């Protein structure tokens, strides 16, 4: 039976999982483990599942992309329904598509869109606690929005990734970094770029929160980026506010001009 490479778009609530990637301790639940298990039950195959972004424990996704090789003859349009009968209720396959054999979710990604949500009110919300970082002191929204624009462009983001991140190239391009107010107490940070370092979005969010608290002035952000010094940036915001919204692979669908 001939094989094909299948691309899945996956949404999940990451609250109860130790990230996307399989952990050394098999007792720790991960998104990847659940997908592999469901594919095994559905097709009888032990799939090697690639992903576009290895989200951390507690991080969510609306548009995670994974791919794997399968000999299954289940049509693309039926595959999500079949998978969703086998997955837990906090994980869902929202789309499936046969792609060229050379497709790779991670290495073929043109860009990603992450969203970080802040719930800013002196009274915590039981309904937002899983999907936002609850900040109690009033934040200066206008200062934060202005500071967010300083991250747009191509920069060495060495100061905005976790210390000890094992990469050689810290240069990334941010196409958009917009902070908007949605509903009365919800601040939403949308960041789109060609790629992101480990904890980069959460450190950007933490830095903007420090701007909102008056600890950092918006005009200091360019110097902090240029310093490449992790100690000058803000704290790493907690994982529950972060969501992987979309991953672009098709140049015709990519909304940014890349030279």
Automatic annotation (TrEMBL):
The active site is at 56 (nucleophile). It catalyses: uridine(38/39/40) in tRNA = pseudouridine(38/39/40) in tRNA. InterPro entries: PsdUridine_synth_cat_dom_sf, PsdUridine_synth_TruA, PsdUridine_synth_TruA_a/b_dom, PsdUridine_synth_TruA_C, TruA/RsuA/RluB/E/F_N. One of its GO terms (biological process) is tRNA pseudouridine synthesis. Its EC number is 5.4.99.12. Keywords: Isomerase, tRNA processing. Substrate binds at residue 114. GO terms for molecular function: RNA binding; tRNA pseudouridine(38-40) synthase activity. Signal peptide: none annotated. Residues 10-107, 147-247 form the Pseudouridine synthase I TruA alpha/beta domain. Pfam families: PseudoU_synth_1. It comes from the Bacteria. NCBIfam families: hisT_truA (TIGR00071). Homodimer. Formation of pseudouridine at positions 38, 39 and 40 in the anticodon stem and loop of transfer RNAs. Belongs to the tRNA pseudouridine synthase TruA family. This is tRNA pseudouridine synthase A. The gene is truA.
